[in-house]
Amino acid sequence: MVELNKKIYMDYAATTPVDPRVLDVMLPYFTELFGNPSSVHGPGQVADAALESARRNVADLLGGRAEEIVFTGCGTESDNLALRGAAMGQRRARNAYHVLTSPVEHHAILHTARQLEEYYSFDVETLPVDQFGRVDPQDVKASLRPNTALVSVIYANNEIGTINPIREIGAVCREAGVLFHTDAVQAAAHLPMNVHLDNVDLLSIGAHKFYGPKGVGALYVRRGVEIIPVQTGGGQEFNLRAGTQNVPYIVGLAEALKLAQLELNQWAPRLSAMRDHLIGRVLEEIPQARLTGHPSERLPNHASFVFKGVDGNQLLMMLDAAGFACSSGSACKVGNPKPSDVLEAIGVSTAWNKGSLRVTLGHGTLPEHIDGLMDVLPGIIERLRTLSVV
Ligand SMILES: *Cc1c(COP(=O)(O)O)cnc(C)c1O
Question: What is the pTM of this model?
Answer without folding.
Answer: 0.96
